[in-house]
Amino acid sequence: MNAAVRTKDKTPxxxxxxxxxxxxxxxxxxxIAIFGTFTDSFLSxxxxxxxxxxISIVTIIATGLTVSLAVGGFDLSIGSTASLANAIVISMFVxxxxxxxxxxxxxxxxxxxxxxxxxxxxINFKIQDMLMTLxxxxxxxxxxxxxxxxxxxxxxMIMPSGEYATGTIPAIFGKIGQSPWxxxxxxxxxxxxFLTYTKHGRYMYMIGGNRxxxxxxxxxxxxxxxxxYLISALLATIGGIMxxxxxxxxxxxxxxxxxxDAVAAAFIGYSVLGAGKPNALGTxxxxxxxxxxxxxLVMMSVPYYAMDIVKGSVLALALAITYxxxxx
Length: 328
Prior knowledge:
Helices cover 74% and strands 0% of the residues. Helix 4 packs antiparallel against helix 5 (100-125). The protein contains 14 helices and no strands. Residues 4-8 have low confidence and may be disordered. It is mostly helical.
């Protein structure tokens, strides 16, 4: 009798469920083994820190996207926001000669307007988040291009008047870009704790899970959606500032290339340890997976134009497992 009960209570092993929970982590281990075998220095400590540096900006931006996903949104303007932040912060130093605090502070202030605009349009016009932020993505990218006149902002650049820019980038600003992974880990931890262990984070998940039920329960849904887009814009801004600190210039469309990796990292993160929802820790491991892929393929001399094929395939596989599991 007892044996029969125990047999009945046992849950049958599901390979799909196993892949859903541990597939990302297993893939990371397998990739490390493969690249470590076929390349000479992949397993070195320098490679480890290079990968962390490489994924830092993408992870920060993707973490902001994760917060917008938590409330059922989808902020596609994060890449444009990063481009705008990059352009503004470097121009504050090079064009206007501001100090580090003033330059960074004004950049954050200006770019938070992006979050306000996104939230206002999405909430008041009741247009699907992804469609509205797709439109604002082009708007903010255009603003960044117009602001810089389509040129790279750098020290001693030639201004439209024909004179040279006299401002300099503070030396301490460049040091931020040398170890961006420290800031990345702190931000991922903070957002993870916020979403997982605070009532406000749980409210955001409630809103993302069932907005109508959250409204009926008395939650200020629109305030939390506004907060989510502000956090998304803030983290995209930090990513853009760190990008400027890393390259010490403001390149045209510098943040656009980060969007695909950020989206992939956030959606891969859904399945990490069976979370089944957007989460900062999963997003981090999703970014690690993409970073290992990119770094390892470069070391194996795979052409850069083939990288997107691999990234897209990984994202497609992650989405397939995630949605298959939801349907079953």
